[in-house]
Specification:
By secondary structure, this protein is of the alpha/beta class. It has one domain (2-210): Metallo-beta-lactamase, Chain A (4-Layer Sandwich). 22% of the residues lie in helices and 28% in strands. The protein contains 6 helices and 14 strands. Strands 1-2-3-4-5-6 form a 6-stranded mixed β-sheet. Strands 7-8-9-10-13-14 form a 6-stranded mixed β-sheet. Helix 1 links the parallel strand 3 (25-29) and strand 4 (49-54). The N and C termini lie far apart (45 Å). Residues 12-172 form the Metallo-beta-lactamase domain.
Length: 232
């Protein structure tokens, strides 16, 4: 299996390229519109065929590259079930497995950051957490139908019950981290260590974070799979 972690420095976003090196089938998780040419160049260099673009959720901080990649490669655009998206080729539900060649990608519902967020467990040992569990942090819960209690329940009862050796690949990092493990996050993540459900909700409800710079354009664009309106 090939797994590459690609970074967009303007939004601190990680995109993941996952591919079966035998069949050459590939999937991009959370592509960024401004990085489509970079991603396509890498896919071409490696001799891969893009099977699909897979979203963890409807992003508020960047526009997805799915629409452009779908136009250029005829790949599928896949989003979590119950997401308010009218243009997806298909939706993926909790527990469903997406097969990319011999690679198994299992969807694990982790709402709370948004009401339709998914994490993806790749071949049982690599966990792409999107904006649910971050390295020494977690996604905010103060917009897009977020709910701190729901996020706490899903991280502690679903992600933290995976083996401690499971590798954690987040959707963002703001301090230079690239990968962690479930065991590390259970031991060192300050959003969860020494916090029960009530104190976690209290913490998350008083973060007082500014809105993402692109929220006004990103959310409606991502509800169109990243299709940005053209101006005349």
């Amino acid at each position: 299996m090939l797994l590459r972690q690609l970074f967009d420095q303007n939004t601190w976003t990680y995109t993941y390229l996952i591919a079966d090196l035998n069949t050459k089938e590939a999937v991009l998780v959370d592509p960024v519109l401004e990085q489509v040419e970079r991603d396509l160049k890498l896919i071409k260099e490696l001799g891969l065929t893009l099977h699909s673009c897979l979203e963890t959720h409807i992003h508020a901080d960047h526009v997805t590259g799915t629409a452009k990649l779908r136009q250029l490669t005829a790949c599928q655009g896949i989003v979590p079930e119950n997401a308010t998206v009218g243009c997806a080729d298909r939706f993926i539900r909790d527990g469903e497995i997406l097969n990319v060649g011999e690679i198994k990608i299992q969807a694990i519902a982790t709402p709370g950051h948004t009401d339709s967020h998914m994490s993806y467990l790749v071949n049982d040992n690599c966990l792409l957490t999107g904006d649910s569990l971050l390295i020494r942090g977690c996604g905010r819960t103060d917009f897009q139908s977020g709910d701190a209690g729901t996020l706490y329940d899903h991280i502690t009862q679903r992600l933290f019950t995976l083996p401690d050796t499971t590798l954690v690949y987040p959707g963002h990092d703001y301090r230079g981290h690239t990968v962690s493990t479930i065991g590390e996050e259970k031991q060192f993540n300050p959003r969860f260590v020494s916090h029960d459900r009530a104190s976690f909700i209290e913490l998350m409800n008083h973060l007082n974070l500014p809105n993402p710079k692109k929220i006004a354009e990103a959310v409606p664009a991502n509800q169109r799979c990243g299709q940005v309106p053209t101006t005349v």
